[in-house]
Amino acid sequence: MQKSTIQFLLINCFLAIVLVSCGSVTKNYTPKKLDKTSIEVPYFANSRTDYVYKTNITVYGHELSGIFIAKKINDTTHRVVFTTEFGNKLLDFEISEKTFKVNSIVSELDRKILINTLEEDFRLLLKKEYQIQEQFENEYFDIYKSVDGDRDNYLFFSKKGQKLEKIVRASKAKEKITITFTLENDNFAKKVVILHQNIKLTIELNYFKSE
Question: Would you say residue 78 has pLDDT above 70?
């Protein structure tokens, strides 16, 4: 991957932040009696599995592709590696709910705003358990609210199958990040899309099934 290409993508994607305005996140949801106080997410939870996905990152109209590998290395921590499609390592980090350690990173990606964005995205994606404070519903989903510092996370479970299909991270007034899951089965997501509302950034993960 050419150095100039990576730098161009970084400049176009992570320096311009456009804020969007909207009303309360829950304005279209109906409050419901709380039926659980915690939720465990199964999709990246098996320590015996290497989760390998083809990755496509779209930033301000430009695309970058590669491979995403996640491995649960102990009860609290995942190791995540990004490589090019040719196997060259771009980024290697370990992440838990409270820690984030970069093991290696190519110089072109070593930018604080990029690292902070990926840390927030993948901590949300790989989080093991959510404590629930409120519950809502709409026509299609049971929605569970989990307070996370100055942000709220909303977990959307389909009413039809009671499967976790979406996580929304939001401030008190607007959505910030949306993660959607397309499921292979109850414990595995064959496709994951991470969409940012305040910057033009989308990360798409498609399960890579080796022949």
Answer: yes
Pairwise CA distance, residues 155 & 141, whole Å: 9
pTM of the entire predicted model: 0.85
Find all residues with CB under 8 Å of 183, minimum gap 6, and list them: 163, 165, 189, 190
The one-letter amino acid at 206? N
At 128, list the tokens. 């093991």
Number of continuous H segments (helices) and E segments (strands) in the chain? 2, 15
Q: Which pair of structure tokens corresponds to residue 210?
A: 């080796």
In the structure, what pLDDT confidence band is assigned to residue 22 with cuts at 50, 70 and 90?
very low
Q: Are 127 and 108 in contact (CB under 8 A)?
A: no
Instruction: Give the span between the Cα atoms of 180 and 191, in whole angstroms.
Output: 8
Neighbour tally for 65: CB within 10 Å? 13
Where are the alpha helices (H) located in the chain, listed in sequence order? 3-14, 112-126
Say which DSSP state 85 is in: T
CB 105 within 8 A of CB 91: yes
73 pLDDT band, cuts 50/70/90, is: very high
Angle CA(197)–CA(109)–CA(104) in degrees, nearest 5? 120
Average pLDDT, the chain: 87
pLDDT per residue as tens digits for the range 140-178: 999 999 999 899 999 999 998 899 999 999 988 789 999
Amino acid at residue number 175: E
Q: List, in order of start, the domains of the chain with CATH numbers.
A: 3-207 (2.50.20)
